[in-house]
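Tip: read the tokens left to right.
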């Protein structure tokens, strides 16, 4: 079995449970901003539509087609207009409230803390994320993840987004380690897996929903639960 010395983790959807935390936040905001009063949609529809719109916008962001401000400004407008509201009916402050509340949520994937505690004594652990710097640190502190990691590399800090191999090369330079000594763990086949491969780094595809996408080329490893990392490391 190959020997690694450093582990690179994606944050959202890999350690920090973005979907659970986002859903809880959106249900709260649905009530707080009295969105039911419009009579157009229920809370479940609001969450599902937001999830769809947000995923599309993040895909555009990762490809460099929109910037951070456009993503944050558009996601609730597109969601609520798509559910039948007029643009001027979108509540002022909704986007800001989401950005303020969601990062303070604490849900992480099963076995996150157990696995990180298991890995920390033997490996250098690091985060590499396209998430916005201003909220990633809040998320990590709120969910007690900060103490496990030495380097936290954000796309905003280095100027490149995953899957651009330059963000991985930037991380390797900061850690002062060779690609062959690192392992990247993430949920996104393009950003995390293809990006790491382009930089010469072995990959673990985290696939908790066990989706059967055709993986070509295949990642070095594939897991559906973080506890399976014990079988690799």
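Filled-in amino acids:
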């Amino acid at each position: 079995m190959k020997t690694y010395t450093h582990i690179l983790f994606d944050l959202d959807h890999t350690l920090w449970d973005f979907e659970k935390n986002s859903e809880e936040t959106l249900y709260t905001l649905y009530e707080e901003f009295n969105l039911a009063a419009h009579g157009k949609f229920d809370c479940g529809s609001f969450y599902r539509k937001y999830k769809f719109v947000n995923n599309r916008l993040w895909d555009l962001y990762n490809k460099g087609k929109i910037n951070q401000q456009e993503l944050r400004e558009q996601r609730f407008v597109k969601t609520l207009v798509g559910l039948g509201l007029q643009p001027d009916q979108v509540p002022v402050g909704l986007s800001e409230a989401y950005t303020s509340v969601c990062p303070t949520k604490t849900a992480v994937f099963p076995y996150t803390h157990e696995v990180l505690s298991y890995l920390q004594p033997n490996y250098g652990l690091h985060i590499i994320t396209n998430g916005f710097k201003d909220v990633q640190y809040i998320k990590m502190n709120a969910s007690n993840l900060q103490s496990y990691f030495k380097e936290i590399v954000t796309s905003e800090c280095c100027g490149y987004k995953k899957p651009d191999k330059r963000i991985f090369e930037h991380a390797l330079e900061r850690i002062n380690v060779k690609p062959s000594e690192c392992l990247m763990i993430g949920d996104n086949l393009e950003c995390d897996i293809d990006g790491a491969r382009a930089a010469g780094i072995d990959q673990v595809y985290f696939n908790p929903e066990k989706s059967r996408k055709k993986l070509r080329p295949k990642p070095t490893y594939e897991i559906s639960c973080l506890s399976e990392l014990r079988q690799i490391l």
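Strands lie at 6-9, 124-129, 151-154, 182-186, 202-206, 221-223. The chain has two domains: 6-17+108-231, 18-104.
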